[in-house]
Every structure is written in C-alpha cells, then in structure tokens.
Design brief:
Helix content is 53%, strand content 5%. With 347 residues, the chain is mainly alpha-helical. Helix 8 (174-188) packs antiparallel against helix 10 (237-248), helix 8 (174-188) packs across helix 12 (294-306) and helix 12 (294-306) packs antiparallel against helix 13 (311-318).
C-alpha cells in the first residue's frame, strides 16, 4: 500500500484507499485496480504534447460523428464499423464541402480512434483494423489508377546545397542571425519544431570540437548530440549559434526567441514560429520548394545517408528508433539510386 500512496503523492492519479468497510460490506480489489488503471491512463494522456492531444481529439471527434450518423455508440466496435469509417472519410461525408480525406489522414484517424477506444477501456478484438487498412490500400490504388492525388505529399528534405543558398541570402539582422542558427542547428541535430522551441541556452555546451546539444524536450527519448564545426563558415552550425547568442545577448532561458517588427527580443518562440521562420527563409532565398520545420529533420537523414553514414549513427543523431520505418523511408530516397537494377548494365 505504501507504493500506492507514494504514487498518489507524486502524481495525484491513484485513488485513496477506501475507508474501513462495515462488517457487511465487501471490498472489491478489482474495482480499485480498474480505477487506478483509468487514473494512470488519464495522467499519461495529460503529459502528451499539445499538438498530439489536438490530433487525437480531432480523430475521436470524427469517429463520434461517424457513429452518430449511423446510429451507433462511439464505444461500439467491429471490423465492419472501422471499415465503414474509412469509407465515410474517403467519400467526404465528414465535411460540409464533401472533400474526400487523403489516405494518410484516414490512416491517422484510424490509429487515433483505436488509441482513444483503448483509453476508454473498450476491449478490442485482435487484428481489429486489418480490414480497414485493406480498405485504405484499395483507396490508394484507385487514386493512383485514376491519376488523382490527395494530401500534400511528403515534406521536401533540405539539402546542404539548399541550406547554403538560404544562409547566403539571409540578412545581417537579428532575425537573420536567429534564422541561420535555427536552420543550421536544427539540421545538425535533426530537430523537430517543438524541440527547437523548447531548447534552452543551457542545453547547448561549448566544446573544443564544437557543441554538445542536449535535447530534453522531445516526442521520444532525451538525447545528447555532438555537433562539430562545419567545413564552411556560411553553413557551420557552431558559428551560427555563437553569432546568434552574441547578437541577441542570450545567457540563459530559451535558446531561440521571437523578434517583433521593431527588433525587440521576446522570451521564447512557439513551434509554429520555428516552422514559419524556416519556411520564410527558404521563400526569401527563392527556392522552388516549400520547406517546413520537418524539412530539416528529413534533410539530415537523407544527406547523412548520401555521405555514406551508418544507419545506426543517423538514428542516434535524430533520436529515431533503430527499426524506424520513417527513418528507413528517408534513407531509401538515397539508396534507391545505388540499388537500382539498371545501374552499370550498359544502357
């Protein structure tokens, strides 16, 4: 019982033990365990990043609307209901303008719905989503057959050549100094927007070889990345960080800050602000692609692979799991040219 009470004191998620039962009352430990499990689920759910929580909430709302439209409870579940959900999204019945959802959106809605049902203690049969996933694949085949495309497609990966072009065009201003540091340090550590927004100045330590960057706020696990000096001054992440820190006079607090139109420095910057800075810098350089915050992360993976780095080293740099399908998808962009069956056959 002491472990339970410690957990309750630290996190406030475990119900207090019941009062002494009357002689004719019987304590039900299974009921208490169920309450503890639900409280723990609520606690873990509350720790999710805000954007993840918003996405899951939107997925659940879509599922609830679908169930209400066909006269079922949102807690009802069957392979047929999930497949019907896919079809409902595919045909645009979830929108007033009847715009069909993209396959990637449907796949995420399906995952978010199953996650929510699990958190609502709904017992899910094994392979409950198999039929629905087949329906999504069939939808993708029909789109390809008819020459249609849904969704924005994969975010373009930033190359070193493109980063060089962007950094050359950035102005010698406070904003330009910040954006150069965001781009180059973000690329070097394969950062997500949230990771850069929450990075503290104290998380970046000088070393004779460059920088040691500790990513403490992350969607996955905490990691520390060694960032060596670059071979070119214009694209060196170490020099870019030193220049921004000196120009902005940053000694503690957030590593990256907002800058208003009068040149006043803020105390922090949002993840959206990081993404906007990256997109704006690329647009200013006249690139014919639209970069997003994720372009830095995918860019590091592809450029490191192109340079011949080991997948394990790349995974460690960006905090990917060794078997990450996303990471291997990035690396296949490079590997497809080396693995081509047409290579060296004399065409």
């Amino acid at each position: 019982m002491s472990d339970e009470l410690d957990f309750q004191d630290q996190h406030g998620v475990v119900p207090a033990p019941p009062a002494q039962s009357a002689p004719d009352e019987v304590e039900r430990p299974h009921d208490r365990l169920a309450a503890i499990d639900q409280a723990a689920t609520n606690y873990v759910r509350a720790q999710r990043p805000a954007n993840t929580s918003r996405a899951y909430a939107a997925d659940w709302d879509a599922w609830c609307c679908y169930c209400a439209s066909i006269g079922f409870s949102s807690r009802d579940i069957s392979p047929g209901l999930l497949t019907g959900f896919v079809r409902w999204l595919e045909t645009g019945q979830h929108r007033t303008d009847s715009q069909p959802a993209a396959p990637s959106t449907i796949r995420r809605r399906l995952y978010g719905t199953v996650t929510a049902l699990t958190e609502h203690n709904v017992e899910l049969p094994k392979n409950i989503t198999a039929q629905a996933n087949e329906a999504i694949k069939a939808y993708e085949r029909r789109l390809a057959r008819d020459g249609h495309r849904r969704g924005r497609g994969q975010t373009p990966a930033a190359t070193v050549k493109q980063l060089r072009a962007i950094c050359t065009e950035l102005p010698s201003t406070l904003v330009g100094s910040r954006d150069r540091a965001v781009l180059l340090l973000g690329f070097a550590v394969a950062a997500r927007r949230d990771e850069l927004a929450h990075l503290a100045a104290g998380d970046i330590t000088d070393d004779e070889n460059g920088l040691l960057v500790q990513i403490r706020y992350s969607k996955t696990a905490e990691r520390t990345i060694a960032v060596p000096y670059g071979s070119r001054a214009i694209t060196c992440p170490v020099r870019a960080w030193h220049s921004w820190r000196k120009t902005a006079g940053i000694t503690d607090g957030r590593a990256f800050r907002s800058v208003d139109r009068h040149g006043n420095l803020g105390h922090s910057i949002t993840a959206a602000g990081i993404g906007n800075a990256i997109s704006r810098a690329a647009d200013h350089a006249g690139l014919m692609v639209h970069f997003t915050g994720h372009s830095l992360r995918s860019g590091l993976a592809t450029e490191a692979r192109r340079a011949g780095h080991d997948p394990h080293a790349i995974a460690k740099q960006g905090g990917w799991a060794g078997n990450s399908a996303v990471l291997h998808g990035y690396m296949r962009i490079v590997d497809q040219w080396d693995d081509s069956a047409l290579k060296n056959i004399g065409l």
